[in-house]
Design a protein that fits this description.
This protein has 20 helices and 5 strands. Strands 3-2-1-4-5 form a 5-stranded parallel β-sheet, sandwiched between helices. Bound molecules: flavin-adenine dinucleotide (FAD). The site of flavin-adenine dinucleotide has 28 residues, from helix 8, helix 10, helix 13 and helix 15. It catalyses: cyclobutadipyrimidine (in DNA) = 2 pyrimidine residues (in DNA). Pfam families: DNA_photolyase, FAD_binding_7.
Length: 468
């Protein structure tokens, strides 16, 4: 018999429960990818994600060729495409790994029900997260709103489950009338993303390379160096995790082995905890689905957000006149990624100092990040804006100058991304406005806002939230 494995954001062959089930229970497996961005509602993949997806599908295609098969590409809608494939190949079963975005949960539930009614065997599997969002609950069976107790619960549930091997042999079925990768039209028309390939290798092999680097080297310093944007102090696995080219289980097994071999535990727990944030973000999105586009804390509906397109554009283009903010926004544009500490700082500048709604920032990130992920992005933005779960007290507004002095003390990060300031003396690098005429002489703008005044305005705005 034949089983269809419907690949979605699990673009790998290892630790793939749907693929393992299909290969063990059936004689042949038909691997299928269906392009159906409309089914993702308001959050169809943005431009940087589409660039990544193109290359990740290409990589999976090559990996499947090595098993003498191919990834059968189709353009949606998903249900009708699966039905047509079942009809054409006589497939008896459809398997997939679960996704958790609200629009996709609704779609998958409906597809599962319809196919089952038609006598097709359908099963979905868990692999993207440590645990499903409904498997980590408080003693009262409620979802968590605070990370630390969530993590304590989840951490206690984690055993040493090894990742699943790629099924061997993998007997693959082919189907007729597939689309070409180019027909999916994923690549941007402008050459904006050309530089991305200097920084990234989408696909399972690229993910494993990043993981090796972390295991060999970076993990040891992870706890201390993860806040330094100039260094490669973090794993940079986020786009690989988003597209499911690697699973948390694969990461953990590899890192555990490296730690056992070197005898140096340091770094492992802080790293697992960071992956715990990813589970937490999915937990929040699953249990509070409106949080992807509405304030989780409804009191923030009263916040006096300011709309100003010209100011928003300055932020997007990295022309705010605040060096660390501009460095981050330019890193994002050039590489499709931004360091976590800097994400918090640029988000705080937009939502607090500039007073713009977090959704403006979330949408820009959505289009420009290669790791754009609805759960992680919504959680990150709402956390910084103060409207989400587990947010820091509102008055803790990041000061981009003191943050730069602390986390980029030599200014390497700023010099890398803001070439106007490359040769600025250290005392002016973080505050180029401190000497009259200096910024202008380098073609660099003066700050769009006074840091202190805009901080005070944010605090005043917050009074509306507090007092109703
Ligand atoms: P590492 O430090 O190596 O962490 C390992 C993995 O843990 C990451 O790859 C990621 O999957 C997960 N992780 C780490 N921190 C977080 C976090 N705070 N929340 C959820 N998961 C986390 N991350 C995304 O993957 N996609 C997004 O769209 C996204 N948008 C963000 C927006 C804002 C405003 C903020 C403040 C954070 C956002 N993050 C997002 C979280 C975080 O910045 C990135 O996951 C991280 O910078 C990725 O780099 P890394 O893989 O080197 O991280």
């Amino acid at each position: 018999s034949i089983a269809i494995v419907w690949f979605r954001r699990d673009l790998r062959l290892q630790d793939h429960p749907a693929l393992v089930a299909a290969a063990t229970r059936h004689e042949r497996v038909l691997p299928v990818y269906i392009h159906a961005p409309d089914e993702e509602g308001d959050w169809a993949p943005g431009a940087a994600s589409r660039w990544w997806l193109h290359h990740a599908l290409d990589a999976l295609q090559r990996d499947l060729h090595r098993h003498h098969g191919e990834l059968h590409l189709r353009i949606g809608p998903s249900l009708q495409t699966l039905q047509a494939l079942i009809e054409a190949t006589g497939a008896e079963a459809v398997y997939w790994n679960r996704l958790y975005e609200p629009a996709l949960v609704a779609r998958d539930t409906q597809i599962k029900q319809t196919l089952r009614e038609q006598g097709v065997h359908v099963a979905s599997f868990d692999a993207a997260l440590w645990r499903n969002p409904w498997q980590v609950l408080t003693k009262q069976d409620e979802p968590y709103r605070v990370f630390t107790p969530f993590w304590r619960n989840l951490r206690a549930q984690l055993g040493d489950e090894p990742p699943l091997d790629t099924p061997s042999p993998l007997r693959l079925e082919k189907a007729k009338d597939g689309a070409t990768l180019d027909a999916l039209d994923l690549l941007p028309r402008r050459d904006w993303a050309d530089g991305f390939s200097e920084h990234w290798t989408p696909g399972e092999a690229g993910a494993m390379e990043m993981l090796e680097r972390l295991a060999d080297d970076a993990l040891r310093g992870y706890g201390e160096l993860r806040d330094r944007p100039a260094l490669v102090g973090t794993s940079r696995l986020s786009p690989h995790l988003h597209f499911g080219e690697i699973t948390p289980r694969m990461a953990r097994a590899k890192l555990r082995a490296a730690v056992d071999a070197s005898g140096e535990e340091k770094g492992l727990e802080p790293y697992l905890r960071e992956l715990g944030w990813r589970d937490f973000a999915h937990h929040v999105m699953y249990h509070f689905p409106h949080s992807v586009d509405r304030n989780l804390d409804e009191r923030f509906d009263r916040y006096p957000w300011r709309d100003d397109d010209a100011a928003l554009e300055r932020w997007q283009q990295g022309r705010t006149g605040v060096p660390l903010v501009d460095a981050g926004m330019r890193e994002l544009w050039a590489t499709g990624w931004m360091h976590n500490r800097v994400r918090m700082i640029v988000a705080s500048w937009l939502t607090k100092n500039m007073g713009q709604h977090w959704l403006h920032g979330a949408r820009w990130f959505w289009d420009t990040l290669v790791d754009a992920d609805l759960a992680n992005n919504s959680l990150g933005w709402q956390w910084v804006a103060g409207s989400g779960v587990d947010a820091a007290p509102y008055f803790r507004i990041f000061n981009p100058v003191t943050q730069a002095q602390r986390f980029d003390p030599e200014g390497e990060y700023i010099r890398r991304w803001v070439p106007e300031l490359r040769d600025a003396p250290k005392k002016l690098l973080h505050e180029p406005w401190a000497q009259d005429g200096f910024a202008a002489s380098r073609g660099y703008p003066l700050p769009m806002l006074d840091i202190k005044d805009s901080r005070q305005r944010a605090l005043d705005g917050y009074e509306a939230v507090r007092n109703g």
